[in-house]
Amino acid sequence: xxxxxxxxxxxxxxxxxxxxxxxxxxxxxxxxxxxxxxxxxxxxxxxxxxxxxxxxxxxxxxxxxxxxxxxxxxxxxxxxxxxxxxxxxxxxxxxxxxxxxxxxxxxxxxxxxxxxxxxxxxxxxxxx
Length: 128
Known about the structure:
Elements: H1 3-12, H2 19-28, E1 45-49, E2 56-61, H3 62-66, H4 69-78, E3 88-92, E4 97-104, E5 107-113, H5 116-127
Antiparallel strand pairs: 1-2, 3-4, 4-5
């Protein structure tokens, strides 16, 4: 999918983000953010987003996106005593910045970044 078609599609579906930055990351991503499987083609990747606030949660394979794994994982970890918790990245309009949310022992913690790249780097430091 070319850039203008992708952005048009995301806007139509209610995604709210820095479309230019997300498109570059979307294009360069080669593995599912959830299951870590390599994408078989560009048609097998999906931009997952929160349907309530439009924020981007990750880039998933069609299987993980269909199962709505990031939404389900976020709901589970928000109410579990998980030490790792879900790391969610979304654009937070009131602060004009990128927010990384994580859940630890039923509490939500947020950290804000000027660029999406900084937010992803911070999130990845917990995932490894």
